[in-house]
Amino acid sequence: MKVLVLNSGSSSIKYQFIETTTRQVLARGQVERIGMDDAVLSHVRIDGDTVKFSAEILDHNIAIEYVVAILLSKNHGVIKDKSEIEAVGHRVVHGGEEFSGSVLVTDEVIEKIKENIELAPLHNPHNLRGIIACKRLLPDTPQVAVFDTAFHQKMPEHAFIYGLPYELYKKYKIRRYGFHGTSHRYVSKRASEILGVPIEKLRIITAHLGNGCSMAAVMYGVSVDTTMGFTPLEGLLMGTRSGDIDPAIVLYIMGKEGLSMAEVNALLNKHSGLLGISGVSSDMREIIEEMRNGNPRARLAFDVFCYRIKKYIGAYSAVMGGVDAIVFTAGIGENSPDVRKKICEGLEFLGIKIDDEKNNSPEREKIITTDDSLVKVLVIPTNEELVIALDTAEIVSKVLANTK
Ligand code: ADP
After folding, report:
1. Strands 143-147 and 87-92, how do they pair?
2. Catalytic site residues (predicted)?
């Protein structure tokens, strides 16, 4: 099935057009600066043909019109008729407690995504805009929503309840949700394929380390705990987010510096993390370069980043009663042997023996532990778009079979 996968953000839409049977990406691209008169669309076709142009793209409707137009384009396109877009799969950040899997988009689903806007005000409205634009532009094409939170919905209550008055959970749904679920699901499944062991028999710790970072304890195929919580701010240190802190610090800084809610929100989400500690950059490549140049705060940011991941490896090994595999993925996890080595240093007691040669080798997907290491450590490039496309094809095929 040919599926258009859309990731609609506030001012950008990323897309991939995927043939799910062959898993080929027929075309991919993005529209950036939506809302501006100099928005930019860049598009790459499977044969390498590339096109980039600027246009006035004032909203998501127009952006998706451009995406469909470029897929249909004589010179740069990959289809001849709109109907060749057999389904559309959307990334939706927050599915709340309603969605523990991907679903066909119906009016009821749209309503529920709307209800969850309060939980993800920075993401869900834009995801929804993409869905509504497609409904208008491709009214006969089935659409599927794939939620970042869904994979973590099977977490047990003791892992998702905060130590707050229980009424706050009932009243405002304040609980831990977790994010990056599509990535944790993909890499844990892929690890079981690479290791040749059914996922039902594996205790896997997955570490998605990109600009946003999170880990999950995936026990026998189920996410039983994850580091992000009510929002993506909890857990690991990230590019610009603080991760875990004592919540009393928020009140203390607000008092000391006279910060408003918006200012403290920006402090925790945009000025903390690697950037905040190093004062240099939120980008791990620059942190590592500065660290090599002898910058002590870049070294500190690197150390805090790795230390917290190591701490959660210990925690999740305890949660699962052991660990069989650890997976590193996303920008930092896939590309930084230094980070992987630092995290795994001192974990020999758990049965982890890193093979430096494998850790430094250029392969993208690999096992980086020695053959006799009891716990296998893997590097697996994440592929959230593929998961969205495959979920979409599966759900749409079932619906079509039932309506025949
Ligand atoms: P996003 O969460 O926005 O999708 P990515 O998964 O692309 O982000 O990850 C971005 C992070 O990956 C940045 O911190 C970047 O520095 C880091 N990164 C990319 N390549 C390397 C590398 N070779 N070494 C270290 N870090 C890298």
Report:
1. parallel
2. 148
Tell me, yes or no, if the pTM score tops 0.85.
yes
pLDDT for the residue 280: 95
Q: Report the separation in Å between the CA atom of 282 and the middle of ligand 1, taken as the mean of its atom positions.
A: 10
Chain length of the chain: 404
Task: Say yes or no: CB of residue 239 within 6 Å of ligand 1.
Answer: yes
Average pLDDT of the chain, as a whole number: 96
Question: Residues 320-374: pLDDT tens digits?
Answer: 999 999 999 999 999 999 999 999 999 999 999 999 999 999 999 999 999 999 9
Homologous superfamily of 2-147: ATPase, nucleotide binding domain (3.30.420.40)
Question: Separation of 337 CA from ligand 1 center, angstroms?
Answer: 12
In the reported structure, the alpha carbon of residue 350 is separated from the centroid of ligand 1 by a whole-number distance in angstroms of 28
pLDDT digits (tens, 9 = 90+) for 371-403: 999 999 999 999 999 999 999 999 999 998 988
The verdict on the CB of residue 232 being under 6 Å from ligand 1 is: no
CA–CA distance, 163 with 165 (Å, rounded to integer): 7
Catalytic residues: 148
What are the structural domain ranges in the chain?
Answer: 2-147, 196-384
Which residue's CA is minimally distant from atom 4 of ligand 1?
Answer: 210
- Give which of 187, 172, 178 is closest to 156, Cα–Cα: 178
Q: Tell me, using a 6 A CB cutoff, whether residue 284 lines ligand 1.
A: yes
Report domain 196-384's class: alpha beta
Contacts of 94 (CB under 8 A, 6+ apart): 113, 116, 119, 120, 123, 124, 147, 148, 149, 177
Domains 2-147 and 196-384 share a fold: yes
Ligand 1 contact, 84 CB (< 6 A): no
